Structures are given as C-alpha cells and as structure tokens.
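Give me the fold.
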Amino acid sequence: MEWYESLEKQADTLLNILKQKDVFENEVEIIINLVRNIEGIVYFTGIGKSGFVAEKASSTYNSLGIRCFYIDAIDTLHGDMGIFNKNDLVVFISKSGETKELFHLFDELKTRGIRTVAITSNKYSYLAKNSDFKLVLPIKSEGDFLNNLVPLASTITYEVVLQSIAVEIASKKGFSLKDFIYRHPGGKIGQTEVK
C-alpha cells in the first residue's frame, strides 16, 4: 500500500462520518447538552492510541473553557477514585468497546453512580450497551494494509468529532477570543492582541 492510498482511505472514512451525520446527530446533541450543562467535571479516558485521543480531547476542551481532565484508566483504580462525584461525566474512548483494561474502571464508576459516555464503533460492545450514553461512529476503513487493525482513521475520527463538539459547546457558551488568549499566556497565541 502506498502512503497516498492510506491517506485517501483515512480521508474517505472521515468524509463518510460527515455524510452520515444525521444518523447520530441526536447522540451528539445529547453529549453536547450533557457537557454544556454539567455541574461537575468531564473526564476522558482510553487505552493505547485511544488514550492519546482522550488526552488531546481533554486538552482541547480545557483550552476552550470546558473544565476537563484526562485520567489513566488503570492508575485511577489505585488510589484516585476519590476524585469523582455524582455530578461528573466520564467519557470512554474505545473503537471496539471491548477493551478489557477499561472494564474495571467502568464498572467501579457505575457502582458509584457516575455517568458514563462511550465513544466507539461497535454498538454491540460492552461499553456501548452499558454506558449511560453512547456515540457510535462507523469506521469505513482504517487506511492500513493489516485488515483494519491499525488505529489510524479511527483515532483521527474520534479526535475530530470530539473537537468539533468542543467548538460548538464553547461557541454556544459565548467563549471569546479574550478567553482563549487568557488560557494561552505562552507561545504565539499568548502574544495575540485583542482589539
């Protein structure tokens, strides 16, 4: 497989999500309203490449004024469960929805009454069936040569959709350029002048 073939397949997968937006628009609206009106904190988690997506999503949400943290699904079980309260929301990212390393944390949160969201591509998975809310995003092709096993298009898709949700929430909350710059005192963004 040539690099541009992989790129084309990944781009086509993302475009396929946009073409099917009506299919899961209600799920997206539910998540937007949950996050926008939350009284607690939004947490993102995942394992492996999905963990990187969770970290990036958390960073983007924070930069847009949405209080949010990334949590390590395994380390949290070893002494950090006290951070949660019943006003919080934990978003689990897992393409298969069957990532067993997530199950222990997921089950603990459910017994404590913490609301959960599953971002997955498998509507029949454990996480999708047992979460309070879910967003199922179909992955047409990962864009790899190993039977759609390499997490390429899926990670891009989850990241882009979650970031797009953050943009809508921040814009509806009246988040301004001044607010954005305030959160970025370093780098080129921090030097931007608000007129």
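The first helix runs from residue 3 to 19.
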